[in-house]
Design goal:
- The chain is of the alpha+beta class.
- The chain folds into five domains: about 45 residues, no CATH class; about 55 residues, Phosphatidylinositol 3-kinase Catalytic Subunit, Chain A, domain 1 (Ubiquitin-like (UB roll)), CATH 3.10.20; about 60 residues, Ubiquitin-like (UB roll) (Roll); about 130 residues, Resuscitation-promoting factor rpfb (Resuscitation-promoting factor rpfb fold, Single Sheet); about 90 residues, no CATH class.
- It is built from twelve helices and 18 strands.
- The termini are far apart.
């Protein structure tokens, strides 16, 4: 022992020989591997305490175009940049759903490119050849740069003869309404109508006449462009107020779009109505008014909205929601909100001091409920489930987010 200490080189060499023989032992490698796996598992359990959530700036996009579909990871911030990176060119009349400026905030995000087709538009004897991928007659005509009004009637048909029209595609025929002027009790408004005579116009607009009312010109007078019709009531003071009519909305569920994605396929136009009142006077001053009637002078045009219904959420996120006790029926709502609030970053902190997956403001609320919030996603989702209850649940929170952009 004393000799080895006096010869340090021999001592070191002897230790190396022992370590080398141990390294070659047949059980060393599997034991070391097992110990390493146990350490990794233990550290992961301590740090997370819930299913692993993969956090990344990249999202999976599903792009359908030219009769093919491509699924790719992308860091593109929006649809337009994604198409640019994929070198997918757009031509006149092509349509992208959702629109190019739509941000890509979640995985399995669906993008559809619809190629334009030839369309012939007939407008009072004028023929226009256009290319459009729009789905409604009005959207086709608008995309072609032709102005139409809510009262104009549009009809889409297939051509009677391809050889006759020298084009393959649909035909859109515009039946124009006649533009005239209606003066209702002193208030003049431009209107459009398919009525042929003054009397027909009154029926079309449901204008009720009193015995003291006079109409100029006569009820049988034919209507032409810029005709003027006067309805007058003598001996009574009348007030007429113009009001706006909000356009109705038709929602179409579309499986080609991701849940939460909305696309306007026909833009709505507000309508107008005239509300007439008979004024009650005392000593020359107004003391009250009684509504006589409402006349719709311009009908509102329906807005058509396509709403995505396909739900395809990555497994790490569904696993975390399941661990938090969230019903599978709410997964789509949760994914929509969390994707936009934090991009599923568990430890997200905003400049305003909002914390976590759902951006609790102030962050102290989340910290008090989940002390390990920076690593405990399941606890966070349980906390935000309680928060969503103020809207009646995750479905109500989703609807609120759609209309307000926050929750």
């Amino acid at each position: 022992m004393r000799r080895l200490r006096n010869n340090p080189n021999e001592f070191i060499a002897n230790r190396r020989r022992k370590l080398w023989s141990l390294k070659n032992h047949p059980f060393v490698v599997p034991i070391a591997t097992l110990l390493t796996l146990l350490i990794i598992t233990f550290v992961t359990f301590l740090n997370l305490g819930s299913p692993t959530l993969v956090q990344s700036d990249s999202h999976i996009a599903i792009v359908s175009y030219d009769k093919q579909s491509q699924t790719i990871p992308t860091k593109a911030p929006n649809v337009g940049e994604l198409l640019k990176r994929l070198n997918i060119k757009l031509y006149e009349g092509d349509i992208v759903e959702p629109t190019a400026d739509t941000p890509i905030l979640e995985d399995n995000f669906r993008v559809n490119v619809y190629r334009a087709r030839p369309v012939i538009i007939y407008d009072n004897g004028h023929k226009t050849l256009a290319y459009s991928a729009a789905t409604t007659s009005r959207s086709i005509v608008t995309q072609a740069g032709i102005t139409v009004y809510p009262e104009d009637n549009l009809k889409t048909t297939l051509p009677d003869s391809i050889l006759k029209n020298n084009a393959i595609g649909e035909e859109v025929v515009i039946d124009r309404a006649t533009a005239i002027y209606l003066n209702l009790y002193g208030t003049a408004v431009p209107i459009r109508t398919h009525a042929k005579a003054v009397g027909d116009l009154l029926k079309e607009k449901n204008i009720q006449l009193e015995t003291s009312d006079t109409v100029e010109p006569a009820l049988t007078t034919r209507l032409t462009t810029n005709s003027q019709i006067f309805i007058i009531r003598k001996g009574t003071q009348i007030a007429t107020v113009e009001e706006t009519i909000s356009p109705p909305t038709q929602v179409v569920e579309d499986a080609s779009l991701s849940f939460g994605t909305t696309v306007i396929r026909q833009k709505g136009i507000p309508g107008k109505k005239l509300v007439t009142y008979q004024i009650e006077l005392q000593n020359g001053k107004e003391v009250g008014r009684n509504k006589i009637q409402e006349v719709i002078v311009q009908a509102p045009l329906e807005q058509i909205v396509a709403r995505g219904k396909t739900v395809n959420i990555a497994g790490d996120k569904t696993g975390l929601m399941a661990a938090a006790g969230i019903s599978s029926a709410d997964y789509a709502y949760v994914n929509y909100i969390i994707s936009r609030e934090s991009n599923w970053r568990i430890n997200a902190v905003s400049s305003a001091g909002c914390y976590g997956l759902g951006q609790s403001c102030p962050g102290s609320k989340l910290v008090s409920s989940c002390p390990s919030w920076q690593t405990d996603g399941a606890c966070q989702l349980q906390f935000f489930t309680g928060y969503a209850s103020r809207y009646g649940g995750w479905g109500g929170a989703y609807n609120f987010w759609l209309s307000h952009g926050w929750w």
